[in-house]
Predict the structure.
Amino acid sequence: MTAVSATHESPSRERIEASILIAAEEVFSQHGYRGASLQVIADRAGLPKANILYYMGSKQSLYVRLLNRMMRRWNEVLEDITPESDPATVLSDFIRTKMVLGQRYPEGSKLFAAEILAGAPFLSDYLAGELREWVASRAKIIRQWSVQGKMDAVDPRWLIFLIWSSTQHYTEYSAQVSGILGRDALTEDDLESISAFLEHVILKGCGVTAPVPKPSIDAYGVEK
Amino acid sequence: MTAVSATHESPSRERIEASILIAAEEVFSQHGYRGASLQVIADRAGLPKANILYYMGSKQSLYVRLLNRMMRRWNEVLEDITPESDPATVLSDFIRTKMVLGQRYPEGSKLFAAEILAGAPFLSDYLAGELREWVASRAKIIRQWSVQGKMDAVDPRWLIFLIWSSTQHYTEYSAQVSGILGRDALTEDDLESISAFLEHVILKGCGVTAPVPKPSIDAYGVEK
DNA sequence: ACCTATATTGACCGATCGGTCAGCACCATC
DNA sequence: GATGGTGCTGACCGATCGGTCAATATAGGT
């Protein structure tokens, strides 16, 4: 290490930690917390097992770190909306942003799904706190849109869940989707086709009428 | 055992096997194949661990048996449709049947989800064979509906995935849903509200116009 | 009462689990 | 070249993993 100070992080350390996080995300997302083993993670990262614990402390702290990183990524794209916003634009952005997020962080999305499947032992506070507040605030605005006649009087909570589930499906069930389509992975054209489909059905299904300026999609960067 | 024959199954044996399957479905669905342990399953079933292996042979054969049982349940409700069928009725039935299935077999649905998350190691043949054929045949009919002007020209595969994902969400992400709603479980009213919402959005979103006779929903029995 | 077949399970197996730790390698400083 | 601090890891720990097996319990047929 350089002589500067104790708190300084050498570039080598950051690189090693990053490779551990990548390997761990793959293994945890496939097999869940209990099903993942440090030995497999270590092998995939090309490091001895003791090295994983040296950098991450414990299996649990490694797992929690991955969860927090994924929630941070999620929060980065939560743009603000107001009752004055155009529902078509907001919902369309929401759908496409979610699709892109799933494609950009497939392992992180699956990690999240496995955590929920296990009963969310590490995320129950987050779900009942931060995330519930987020849903409540958006639901309030969507409800106002309905009152203003900008869209049908649908339950905003079910609408939010619909957008979540229908977009997440293509990353978390990728094994099912590609098995049925007979392809190893979704193409860029598939993603655009799916996004357009969801946009069409959900907006039309909710009676959203306002014109929406066509956004462009980019699998490697969130549009806007 | 009775004197009848070697293939005869005593009622006691059936009862024990059923209790093992119930316990195993709970554990496998929460923690996946690798994360589940026979000891935990045995404890939950109130039996010694060796007894589980006596009845089920191995961890893998127990797991495969659960998967097959779930796929059989799924196949039971796959009704036939034709190009002459009414899209509104068929889609509405499809949505509500899927919702009821998820509520009736929540552990089985989660088991399936965990298997897919793990990359479908035991189900890849089923996905690329039987299920792919099922999707292809339905897609063909839906496409004909579009040609006949009964609905919008949407990609049938994305429509099928939409119905799957949006209905499954409420069983597989029950921990997230109940965490956000601040409730332990969904009520009967919630389920009817969600079904009606999905019916409204998906049918309207696909431009399905024909009148649909209102079906009744019953969480403990599939309607029809 | 005896025999046979099945039901049941405690004890045990080698392998693997998450985690600890002593000790070696390395390197800047004096 | 001796020193001290960090990076690193092979070897090991008790616990638990899936699975085997011998021993015992049970029940029906004769």
Observations:
- Chain B touches chain A through 58 residues (CB under 8 Å).
- Chain B has ten helices and no strands.
